[in-house]
């Protein structure tokens, strides 16, 4: 999985960003233009893999155990391993994908652990600069409207492709016949050339400019998808034609269209009216919490779901939730501090969450009065966050979505240093404060009929979740008087300096580059979080020696 690089973000700024009523931006190069020509991740040779395995085992086992490991590896490489390697190579020739893709999905979908605190992460949005837009209904309406615009921009090919620009031709070499193209990655000429190149060859046109287009296959499951619990292994389901979101308030569910019958985005004013209607109803927790079933063991949830859909009305409601473009939680709990806020976005009470959706947007209410709030920064805003299910993809698609629709885009230090502040596109914060207008259809409440058998499973799920939640401690480290971009800039520059120094030293000491860079990354992290560098050994054997000590200690004492 590829990380979303700040260089990708900066390069996106160079393209023609033109907003319209329906789209966040436009691009000469269609969103998935490079997808058919991306080079596949090569399958490593079995011998190389076995050598790496042996090297990684050295710090963890005794010399006698290492000899046994070596013997078993030799037998495996010459026997079943060779057959398995040939099978993997033969399978990959039949499809255009990465050989790790299917095992990656299986790793998540076969995991039987509850999703909150084990699988699902959260991201917290900053507040809108206009205070009037930070009440719960307005915030929910604007972010929903902006998300719908992102959806259309993505699905209709107007979203700028994810790319990494080296600004040096031929994939970063910067030399040879094409050196006159240095510095032109992301330029208008680059866009025109890549757009005119057929999809099957588009990657190589970008490569000549020193640009690496990135895989965007995960974006296909960002919207209109869900994880469905199944015995043994869950499945991912995509609903191509859905136009609605599902909204939770307390234990109640509502369905709301955010695209009209023609696929156009319903206005923020009309969405606001629907949000206000839902918020005007008393929050209820008396009804059984179907949502908390998504926070329990996956096999238990699969059993409960099979019981639920025995009722046709339950099956219809679950179908509406599963097929929603995404989920929204109108939270009623008001956080008292930043840790409470973080826990709310990460898991909350789980009664008003649906952790199976590709992502759910959580909007917290304002404090009733500014004077009663114990934390200054929480007084005037209804905070918003995103909790996303991890099996369908990594953070790359979520971060792109997050950056496009959130009220403030966190500025990378590269963008700041190039003074690109005015070019950073920010959708929902630029929108005016919405004024309620009647929604074409209005929200529709979903109904569930809960049997005694399912109620018992719900009660157990709630008890199990509360036990798990109470066993997890969350703490906050706050650095006053600094801002994030400055800390990141300082730690990155110092880390790069140390990499250069250590590479020079390592060359004379016979160390390989990976050891040096690993040590520098760890030093950079310690500087970032502790304000000083750790004296971290470069050798992997030395670094992992304390781990070996702990393994031996726990093995001898029977510790876990």
Which descriptors apply to this entry?
single chain; 560 residues; alpha+beta; 7-stranded mixed β-sheet; two-stranded antiparallel ribbon; globular; disordered N terminus; disordered C terminus
Largest sheet: 7 strands, mixed
Low-confidence stretches: 1-18, 407-425, 501-548, 553-560
Radius of gyration: 26 Å
Number of distinct helices? 19
SS content category: alpha+beta
Order of adjacent strands in the largest pleated sheet? 1-10-9-8-6-7-11
One letter per element, helices H and strands E, the order comes to: HHHHHEHEHHHEEEEEHHHEHEEHHEHHHH
Amount of helix = 40-55%
Distance between the termini: 31 Å
Structure description:
The protein is built from 19 helices and eleven strands. The chain is globular, with a radius of gyration of 26 Å. The protein is 43% helix and 8% strand. β8, α13 and β9 (359-363) form a beta-alpha-beta unit. The protein has a seven-stranded mixed beta sheet, sandwiched between helices. A two-stranded antiparallel ribbon has the order 2-3. The protein has a two-stranded antiparallel sheet with strand order 4-5. α2 (46-57) runs antiparallel to α3 (63-78), α8 (188-196) packs antiparallel against α9 and α17 packs antiparallel against α18. The protein is α+β, with helices and mostly antiparallel strands.
